Amino acid sequence: MRLFGLSRRHILLAMLLFAIEVVIAARLPHVSWVRAYLGDVLVVVLLYAMVRSVLRINDYLVLLMVFVFACGIEMAQYFHVAERLGYVRGDVMYTVIGNTFSWGDIVCYAVGCIATAVIVLLSRTLFRIHR
């Protein structure tokens, strides 16, 4: 089995989720729960879809790697890595790394990964039934 290979389904999912994240950031900044919670849940699903769009590896391993990566970014926020690297508000990397640690964000990442794992499991089960 090949490790690399494009998945149209995951590419389309990643594009859709990216568009939703852009809308959340650009058009819904005043709806705090959407930006603070739903955006964090969706971002791990977006990362999962991006990885799976080019790599053919176990879905659950990808979800674990995405969760660890997201927690790593959150830890970078806790230690103010963006500021220590010299980035200031408005810099792209400052926005990517972020600046505010929150346990709530980690919970949202877990919810997104668990929900995705459940969907993957259900889709595999339904696919087997209809074969």
Description:
This protein has 131 residues and is mainly α. 76% of the residues lie in helices and 0% in strands. It is built from six helices and no strands. The protein has helices at residues 8-27, 32-54, 59-78, 81-84, 92-97, 103-129. Helix 2 crosses helix 3, helix 2 (32-54) crosses helix 6 (103-129) and helix 3 runs antiparallel to helix 6 (103-129). It is globular and about 50 Å long. The two termini are 22 Å apart. 17% of the residues are buried.
List the helices and strands and how they pair.
Elements: H1 8-27, H2 32-54, H3 59-78, H4 81-84, H5 92-97, H6 103-129
List its traits.
131 residues, mainly alpha, 0% strand
Brief account:
The chain is an all-alpha fold and 131 residues long.
Main sheet?
Answer: none
Number of domains: 1
Arithmetic mean pLDDT: 92
Helical content class: over 70%
Q: What spatial form do the alpha-carbon principal axes imply?
A: globular
Amino-to-carboxy terminus distance: 22 Å
Order of helices and strands: HHHHHH
Percent strand equals under 5%
The gyration radius over C-alpha positions equals 16 Å
